[in-house]
Amino acid sequence: MNKLMSPSTGTGLRQRLIEDMSVRGFTEKTRRDYIRSVAGFVSFLGRSPDTATAEDIRRFQIHLSELGMHAPAMNSTVSALRFFFTHTLDRPEISRKLIRLRYARKLPTVLSADEVARLLAAAKSLKHRAALAVAYGAGLRVAEVASLKVGDIDSARMLIRVERGKGGRYRHAMLSLDLLTLLRAWWQEGRRHGVMLHGGWLFPGQDPAKPITTRQLSRVVEDAAAAAGITKNVSPHTLRHYLPRLTMSSSGISVQDSKGL
């Protein structure tokens, strides 16, 4: 049995890990990833993690390397174990033995102004078009888009409140008048169809009481890219790498490069 889950040693440590992450506002995805990484180490160790030594850490990283784990995944595991040993077990001296790997980062896929306009126009529904426009126009991550509620749109100050940003931080994103116009159009349509609940999610899922998932948004982008004839490898994150001005016209959505004042 995985000792992180065992009645004798694991349940308490697992719960403490969850509590330590929750109090720091970690996202659900980060919590799942950290639990999975720590559980993998415990499975490798074969005993309670509070007895781990620096040599155990070294052997585990060698083990992951021999399995062919790539540098980004290795570094993610290192982050999880560092948090676990530093905060949950209060053994920071062990966490300092973990090694992060350097690697060449790939340049992100960048869309042209025409491709962005075609992608948004190819979205199958107003909800999907509005969600992609938020990711693009406000530079939000896919998880941030999915987590937006109607009340997060501050039209008085022209801001979007992002409550579940990376690392649990709170921030505001700029809201353009064009994006607000599109969001209001979606809000009105959602209200007519009874899916826009009072105080509910800005982009509800099939169950209006739950938000659209990041996986659904990824499929929306992939389908729109295919429909628009875009052959580049496109994901929701791609929209954050190109931020010219988004404009609305009577004929639909258009994109213009920002040339300054």
From TrEMBL:
Residues 106-261 form the Tyr recombinase domain. It comes from the Bacteria. This is Site-specific integrase. Keywords: DNA integration, DNA recombination, DNA-binding. It comes from Acidiphilium iwatense. SUPFAM superfamilies: DNA breaking-rejoining enzymes. InterPro entries: CB (IPR044068), DNA_brk_join_enz (IPR011010), Integrase-like_cat_sf (IPR013762), Integrase_catalytic (IPR002104), Integrase_recombinase_N (IPR010998), Integrase_SAM-like_N (IPR004107), Tyrosine_recombinase_XerCD (IPR050090). Belongs to the 'phage' integrase family. Residues 8-89 form the Core-binding (CB) domain.
